[in-house]
TrEMBL record:
<keyword id="KW-0378">Hydrolase</keyword>
<dbReference type="GO" id="GO:0016787">
    <property type="term" value="F:hydrolase activity"/>
</dbReference>
<dbReference type="InterPro" id="IPR036852">
    <property type="entry name" value="Peptidase_S8/S53_dom_sf"/>
</dbReference>
<dbReference type="InterPro" id="IPR015500">
    <property type="entry name" value="Peptidase_S8_subtilisin-rel"/>
</dbReference>
<dbReference type="InterPro" id="IPR022398">
    <property type="entry name" value="Peptidase_S8_His-AS"/>
</dbReference>
<dbReference type="InterPro" id="IPR037045">
    <property type="entry name" value="S8pro/Inhibitor_I9_sf"/>
</dbReference>
<keyword id="KW-0720">Serine protease</keyword>
<dbReference type="InterPro" id="IPR000209">
    <property type="entry name" value="Peptidase_S8/S53_dom"/>
</dbReference>
<comment type="similarity">
    <text>Belongs to the peptidase S8 family.</text>
</comment>
<dbReference type="Pfam" id="PF00082">
    <property type="entry name" value="Peptidase_S8"/>
</dbReference>
<feature type="domain" description="Peptidase S8/S53">
    <location>
        <begin position="145"/>
        <end position="424"/>
    </location>
</feature>
<keyword id="KW-0645">Protease</keyword>
<dbReference type="InterPro" id="IPR023827">
    <property type="entry name" value="Peptidase_S8_Asp-AS"/>
</dbReference>
<feature type="active site" description="Charge relay system">
    <location>
        <position position="154"/>
    </location>
</feature>
<dbReference type="InterPro" id="IPR023828">
    <property type="entry name" value="Peptidase_S8_Ser-AS"/>
</dbReference>
<dbReference type="InterPro" id="IPR050131">
    <property type="entry name" value="Peptidase_S8_subtilisin-like"/>
</dbReference>
<protein>
    <submittedName>
        <fullName>S8 family peptidase</fullName>
        <ecNumber>3.4.-.-</ecNumber>
    </submittedName>
</protein>
Amino acid sequence: MFGFSMIKLVRQHADKLDLQMRSKLVNLYRPMRKTPCFLHSSIEKWLTKRSKIKVLIEFHEEEANVLAAAQVQEYIAAHRNCKVHHQFGSIPFCSATVTANALEDLLTNCNHIKKIHYDREVRALLDKASPSIHADVLNQSGVTGKDITIAIVDTGIYPHSDIKDRIIGFKDLVNKKSEAYDDNGHGTHCAGDAAGNGYLSDGKYKGPAPEANLVGVKVLNKMGSGSLSTVIAGVQWCIDNKEKYNIKVISMSLGSSATQPAAEDPVVKAVEKAWKEGIVVCVAAGNEGPDDNTVSSPGISPKVITVGAIDDQNTLDRSDDKIASFSSRGPTIDGITKPDILTPGVNIVSLRSPGSYLDKVAKDSRVAKDYCSLSGTSMATPICAGVVALVIQQNPDFTPDQVKEKLINAAEDWGLPAHSQGHGYLDVSKLI
């Protein structure tokens, strides 16, 4: 078996292939375990020419992104069934579909390549559906997120009456549609968690930033799943359009298992670039608790605001609140304390997207006609993003680092281990 070409390739270029990529290539030979040896050669030729793999190709930082991508395009064009999909302007990556033969050609001949990552699945971080963070204290003093735009990088946004007049942009990287929609329902709920104004509930179900603008960036499909490359493309779109839509906050209630250090993680590099460009990024910690070391990527980034979930017991009194059992705990793969902060994430009532996937499979989660109740760090994250919009409205010159520090200073120590609560439970009244 060690004589097979892809096994040799993995051994020769192990430093340029991430763990999932190495496993993917080795597993190409799995069907051959039950086939006679004399057929192996012909089967291998077929597999290496026909098996298609989605990848993220990372270039050396010092190389010109355009030049490197052009060279990759040249090599890939020489192989059938191969294609470059995205070239990302802010980080030195491109995404592509390649065969094993094309991959071997790239690794052998292209000197611009730093590493090739498997374009693995990313999912909406949903567990199963009122905030007691005291956001009303700021709302009553006129701090409502007005003119601040929050980008919801998720499954899309349904134009619900509570937000439709404030959806100022929409980008669909899945189905390429131009009008705002949400065929899953997760992104719509998140949009309401951040910026719903409670119009259809007489103000009862309202997010912390009820006058903030929204941009929907659809990177996950109807089933709530997507790929690293599509998520990165969504973040890149936010960077490219931040001035056009005044995007100040990105909310990402999605993630994948953290399998490599933050410094090597492609999505971490994308969100940290957005952070460097002046956009505050809020990311869900994940729903793999109560076990330790379960924080998802890109929540492992030391820069972004990683949000865990607390159970507010559906009461305004915080004394009975407790951390949600599902909320992922740190430390991260690098030993960094995460999450950064906790906000409510259990039985959160927000906007319903009629006819969407979640609306059909979780009918018991519906609340009245226009809302639904969901739980997860998915809900906690946009609640935090809404609070970020309030901070930026009050302090328009703040950098993302200053915004994060402001939130950390407004967190109440809940007496839990740091890798469970981070800096504690957010109390918006302390922002005054």
